Amino acid sequence: MYLVTAEQMRKLEERAMSDSGLPSLVLMENAARAVADAAIRMDRPDRPMKRWAVLAGKGNNGGDGIAAARHLTEAGCSCEIILAVPPEQLGADAALQLKAARSFGIPVQVFSPGATPWHRYDGIIDALLGTGTAGAPREPYASMIREANGSGLPIVAVDIPSGLDADSGKVYEPCIRAVQTVTFACSKVGLALYPGKEAAGTVTTAPIGIPEQLAEAAAAALARRGVEATVEMVELRDIAHDMIDHLLEGQTSPELRKAIDEVTRADGIIAVTPIFSASYNGLFKNFFDVLDPDSLAGKPVLIGATAGTPRHSLALEHAIRPLFTFLRAVVAPTAVFAASEDWDEDRQPMISERIRRAADEFAHFVFARASAEAAVTRN
User: Fold this and answer.
1) Does a cis peptide bond (omega within 30 degrees of 0) precede residue 195?
2) What is the pLDDT of residues 13-58, one digit of tens each?
3) How do residues 204-238 score in pLDDT, each as one tens digit?
4) 225-280 pLDDT, tens per residue?
5) Is the pLDDT reported for residue 86 higher than 90?
6) Which of 80, 66, 15, 39 shows the shortest CA–CA distance to 274?
7) What is the mean pLDDT of residues 272-292?
8) Where are the domains of the chain?
9) Number of neighbours of residue 249 by Cβ within 10 angstroms
């Protein structure tokens, strides 16, 4: 499990958008779908969870919640969106999500103290404040949090409970007391530290990008084969200067050496790159230029790519696969490409199935290679 601070998460989100070509609305849709799925799973015959109040702030956290209301409505639930601020004060992405929610006929109201009929709901989605806020919640957020806690309804927090410090785990007054928190990409430090851990309830981490989803699917496929996998992420941008220094002057910094060792020691590699001008990212190629030419021989590799439009998809077969074939790696037959439109609701099942199939092929190669090496060792 990876724990990140709020600032580290902000940088990861910026990279997800700039490197992959996926706009913020795509990541917001993925996050919202994960929140809605978590809420739907709470439904029980003896405890129906069909009526949801979505408390939405003005920023991206609020946008996640508003989009989750739409996904819940599509799943047959009844939702009402309660805004902390008037609609004209919403951020750009949250405003677009509100427009979409209204087109679905979802009721929208602006919070007024004491006016919310909490008895009409089965549960609450907390999408008021995200990791970008600091300090104790101010009005009207403070009143919304107090009323939500006082309602006695189960609360699902979006990314982090409102009023909880994402870095320290400090619980401000007031703070949402959630039964479940759905956090995105990486869990936040504050969710693992007391008293924040207690306020967050059960924490689930939802992947919202291709690298995370491939890693999660591969780990699950290996688990089905009785193998517990450990996933290490190598962020190439962090060692960009180190790679240039190595190529120009032959110097290998400790950070670059660590990345090289992680890749060469791995039992398998999931290699994902954004596509620009019909080919892989320059940093991606630079890293494999730094590796010893024999270091990937026989090593299973799963390849993936992201881009803003589908026209770049052929880069997987005419650029990325040949690179790893040249390095004598064993490349899984199924590659995964995702453009912005692949995250649309009607296309999500297709890319999810492709991820599952590619991960299963990759896990087969990893398991077979590990089993063969173990047999050689025994003999």
Assistant:
1) yes
2) 554 444 444 456 767 887 898 899 899 989 888 888 999 999 999 9
3) 877 666 677 788 889 889 999 998 888 887 878 77
4) 998 888 887 878 778 889 989 988 888 999 999 999 999 999 999 998 878 778 88
5) yes
6) 15
7) 86
8) 3-206, 210-378
9) 8
Q: Which CATH number fits domain 210-378: 1.20.1250.20, 3.30.160.390, 3.30.70.270, 3.40.50.360?
A: 3.40.50.360
Query: What does the buried/exposed string (b/e) look like for 129-146 if buried means 16 or more CB atoms within 10 Å of the residue's CB?
Result: bbbebeeebeebbbbbbb
- Topology agreement, domain 3-206 and domain 210-378: yes
List the alpha helices (DSSP H) in the chain.
6-20, 24-41, 60-74, 92-103, 141-150, 189-192, 196-200, 210-224, 240-249, 254-265, 282-290, 315, 321-326, 348-378
Specify the residue for token string 């996998």: 229
Could you give the C-alpha distances from 304 to 36, 249, 278, 309, 350, in angstroms and in order? Answer: 27, 31, 14, 15, 15
Distance of CA 113 to the CA centre of its chain: 34
Q: Say what the pLDDT of residue 20 is.
A: 43
pTM for the full predicted model: 0.61
| Residues paired with 337 in a beta bridge | 305
Token readout for 291 is 């590796």
Would you identify the CATH topology of the domain 3-206?
Rossmann fold (3.40.50)
CA-CA distance, 371 to 75, in Å (whole number)?
43
